[in-house]
Amino acid sequence: MAIPRKYLVPVIMLLAGLVAFSGCANPSVAVSSHIDDLDLTGVWHQVVDVIDVQEETARLDTFNLLTDADGDIQKLSLKFYGYDTDGSPKFYSAEMNSAGQLVVKTLVTTSVLEYRHPLGILAELDAVGIAALERGDGGLAVQIRFQRNDIGYTYDYVDVFHLAHGHLRQLELIRLSSNYYSCTIEYFRLQKSDSGINTTPPMPVPPGERTGQVWFLTEDINRATDVVYLGG
């Protein structure tokens, strides 16, 4: 049975209480300019090495990657919460600048949201092989966000997968609960004609014609209220 819900919703970040952290110039790390050489777990370790954070307390907020058709990286951002070595909650925003440096800004916040540690999520993206993903004539986009909604995804409307150890297994149906934050990974083959705003079309796009996928990790599969794999 189809679930007529939008599956790609706008990312809304409420960063109430965030205050710019004064002090030295924002640290930065050099990252690859091409997707073939992008090592996300390596990027994570580089970022942690140049900031004041208790690494084990880090909780991913959002991740965004955008390339052109040739695989050159146009945008890379990694945002997360954590506690510094004094135990104060912070929000960290790492974004690529025009020189190919990932610049990390630290902001003061009132709390650390209970999402998930970034390393395991980024390791899954490394394992699946982002560089091998098909790109459209406008490139590709990968984004990660957390949601806490009673929401369902069905094969009638979207290609949705279980991602585990770098392998994708397609689902016929998954229903998530508002009782916890689920990690949603979205991958798009971009077309030059895209408006830049990804929304659910008014009618279902047939399999084989879709340019986007949604992936869920094992933790979300185990917590889901209903999971059916395609083909049983």
List keywords for this structure.
single chain; 232 residues; mainly beta; 2 domains; 13-stranded mixed sheet; 13 strands; 12% helix; globular; disordered N terminus
Could you characterize the architecture of this molecule?
It is a single chain. With 232 residues, this protein is mainly beta. The protein folds into two domains: 21-120, no CATH class; 139-229, no CATH class. The protein is built from three helices and 13 strands, in the order ββαββββαββββββαβ. It has helices spanning 40-49, 118-128, 218-223, and strands at residues 19-20, 28-30, 59-67, 73-83, 89-96, 101-108, 139-147, 151-154, 159-164, 167-176, 182-190, 212-217, 226-229. A hairpin with a 5-residue loop joins strand 3 and strand 4. The longest helix has 11 residues, at 118-128. The protein is globular.
Low-confidence stretches: 1-16
Counting DSSP E segments of at least 2 residues, the number of strands comes to 13
| Broad shape | globular
Give the rounded overall mean pLDDT: 88
Number of helices: 3
Strand content: 35-45%
- What Rg is obtained from the alpha carbons, in whole angstroms? 18 Å
Percent range for helical residues? Answer: 10-25%
What's the domain count? 2
Instruction: Characterize the main sheet.
Output: 13 strands, mixed
- The H/E string reads EEHEEEEHEEEEEEHE
> How would you describe the oligomerization state of the chains in this entry?
single chain
Helix/strand-derived category reads mainly beta
Query: What is the end-to-end distance?
Result: 15 Å
